Amino acid sequence: MHPLALARRPSALLPRQLCRPCCRALATPARSKVFAEGDVVLLRDKNRPRNPGILTSPLKPGAVITKQDCQIPHDAIIGRAVRDTIPTRKTEYRIQDPTLDEYVRMTPRIVTPIYPKDASFIVSLFDIHVSPAAPSAPPSPPLEILEAGTGHGGLTLHLARAIHGANPPLSASLRVEHASTDPDHSAEDVTYESTTTDYAVEHTFEAWRRNRRAVVHTLDNKPRHTDHARKIVRRFRRGMYANDVDFHVDDVSSWIKARFEAQKKGETWRDAEPFLSYVFLDLPSAENHVEIVSKALHVDGALAVFNPSITQIADVVQRVKELKLPLALDNVIELKGSDTVREWDVRVSQLKAARRAANSTSLGVEGIEEAVSIEEDVAQGSEKGASLAKQAVEEAQDLKRREREQDEGLESSEDDDWKLICRPKTGLTMGVGGFVGLWRRTKSS
């Protein structure tokens, strides 16, 4: 038959050696992946798909996973493809790559982590956008993120994933050299470690590091936490994001001052140029560091403070006000239990009486706090498109009653100083665990 005639035949009549499902399966990139030594895999019981499964340690020949009812040797996993199954005496386990969410939740921990839903929400607040540099673009400083309070390394991984696309690709050989997945590997800085003494390899890797377009600096003042987080980061997907992160054991203020001094070659840090685009502080006394952090932030750079207590966020609000720092508070969000996120109104407000007295005007209104009323809060919520459910209405009524009591107390107060407002706004719902305050760096006056 002529080739043109064959081309005009219906596709159903064309000879096929493989069925469509097989063609699709073979064309899927994930199908080609074969697990090897050093991989961390997730084993799911086929008979109990909702069971969280088993997260393995890095695969190692001769190692064995011991369960109550069976033993699974690592050798039975090495060489298998993704979603293959391993039969045991009572069931079968499907082999999968763990998602970032599963990996962070299931890895062993020595500190309480920032859980994946919270980490994703925090990264979304930062609104990070990166892209690789164009080949003809002139050299420019990289985008730098500072995370203070490394802890478990969960947020570190989420931040590294957000900026990973900005950096040039690293060859597989260099990635293996500098991001070892050996569980017994020593805990020196992952961005500098190497299992080779080849000068050419070291030179190539250092050149790659200098060309990074984005980097996450993560600090913790406890070496044990840093060592643990480094392992967590470099074991995920064979160190996929390990070289996007620089680990440091240091105090936040000390580290920033050292960067300033290196930049200005010994001159005072107060006159140095900013170099950070995003800062995340997960510290018990974050207010002690906000002054120098504000110096290090680029204009419109974001500062996020994460604490378990609203009063700790309030301490930062007060310090920013006292020092007149160029930081504008965008919002304060409560990451509540289950699936609720609640926005909070946290600010310093002055009594109208005090402000009018300072301006030498008559007191037309007695000491009433200048604050947004609950009706305005509800209006704000409706502007955002949030419908007030029964819970929100009850919450609004309760807040209104408490505000009235607070206002009555302020009216009878003889203190004309600034007052701190800490109360939940109504409407928005979504997230988990603690409070996040987000500030943006403004232009210095």
Automatic annotation (TrEMBL):
Location of the tRNA (adenine(58)-N(1))-methyltransferase catalytic subunit TRM61 C-terminal domain: 246-360
Q: What class of enzyme is it?
A: transferase
The EC number(s) attached to this protein equal 2.1.1.220
- What is the protein named? tRNA (adenine(58)-N(1))-methyltransferase catalytic subunit TRM61
Cite the entry's keywords alphabetically: Methyltransferase, S-adenosyl-L-methionine, Transferase, tRNA processing
Gene Ontology biological process terms in this record: tRNA methylation
Instruction: Name the domain of life.
Output: Eukaryota
Q: Name one GO cellular component term.
A: tRNA (m1A) methyltransferase complex
Short name of one Pfam family for this protein?
A: GCD14
Q: Name one GO molecular function term.
A: tRNA (adenine(58)-N1)-methyltransferase activity
Task: Cite the source lineage.
Answer: Eukaryota, Fungi, Dikarya, Ascomycota, Pezizomycotina
Stretches for region Disordered:
385-416
To which species is this protein native?
Answer: Macrophomina phaseolina (strain MS6)
Q: List all Basic and acidic residues biased stretches.
A: 397-407
Quote the Gene3D superfamilies the UniProt record gives.
3.10.330.20, Vaccinia Virus protein VP39
